[in-house]
Every structure is written in C-alpha cells, then in structure tokens.
Amino acid sequence: MEVEGDSVHETLYIKNLNDHVSKKDLTESLYHLFSSHGRVISVVCKRGPMRGQAFVVFSKPEEAAGAMQRFQGMNVFGKDMVIEFARNRSASAAAHCGEFATAMLTKTAKDKL
C-alpha cells in the first residue's frame, strides 16, 4: 500500500506545530487526539532546531494511514498540522514488532565477541 510515494508504516511525521506550546502540553494533546484513531505507542515532540515537529507511532500501519487522512490540516494550537509518513520506521514501532530487540541482541552479542 502506497500513499503519494511514501511507504505506509506505523510512524507519522507531523510538522507546522506551534512551537510556543510546551513540549508536555503538545505531547499530551497529540496523544489524546491521535489515540481517538488507534493505539498510539509513542509521541515524540521535537524541540531546539527541529521545534514544531513531532512523530506519532501507531501499533498498526492502517491506523496511522487513517489518522493521517482524518487529521491532515487540522488546526491544533492555532496552526494547521501537516502530516506525512516518516521516512523511516521508528525504533518504537520496530520494537513493537519485535525487530528492534532482535537487532539490539545481535549487536550486543557481537560486542561480546
């Protein structure tokens, strides 16, 4: 399944967020908003040079795709969100599917050799 050339997976990249809202308030608001469309594994709001951006990770790609379609352009704290699939699958999404743990175990095993 492809959407506008982006690979569909569990992680959404959100930009154009209000960078004057506290990280805590933004994280909680995004969690509650996106949880209404599926099981959210994590929300990471960026500060510093990447302020106004966030990543929301769902348990299933279908939930992420539906949330992106539903919330695209929605006004949150005075700014219209721009949502797309993240370029890469997040570590928390990989861990949820058991992939990250395997990769870390392999790395740890190699370090012991």
From TrEMBL:
<dbReference type="Pfam" id="PF00076">
    <property type="entry name" value="RRM_1"/>
</dbReference>
<keyword id="KW-0694">RNA-binding</keyword>
<dbReference type="InterPro" id="IPR000504">
    <property type="entry name" value="RRM_dom"/>
</dbReference>
<keyword id="KW-0687">Ribonucleoprotein</keyword>
<dbReference type="InterPro" id="IPR045164">
    <property type="entry name" value="RBM41/RNPC3"/>
</dbReference>
<dbReference type="GO" id="GO:0097157">
    <property type="term" value="F:pre-mRNA intronic binding"/>
</dbReference>
<dbReference type="GO" id="GO:0005689">
    <property type="term" value="C:U12-type spliceosomal complex"/>
</dbReference>
<feature type="domain" description="RRM">
    <location>
        <begin position="10"/>
        <end position="88"/>
    </location>
</feature>
<protein>
    <submittedName>
        <fullName>U1 small nuclear ribonucleoprotein A/U2 small nuclear ribonucleoprotein B</fullName>
    </submittedName>
</protein>
<dbReference type="InterPro" id="IPR012677">
    <property type="entry name" value="Nucleotide-bd_a/b_plait_sf"/>
</dbReference>
<dbReference type="InterPro" id="IPR035979">
    <property type="entry name" value="RBD_domain_sf"/>
</dbReference>
<dbReference type="GO" id="GO:0030626">
    <property type="term" value="F:U12 snRNA binding"/>
</dbReference>
<dbReference type="GO" id="GO:0000398">
    <property type="term" value="P:mRNA splicing, via spliceosome"/>
</dbReference>
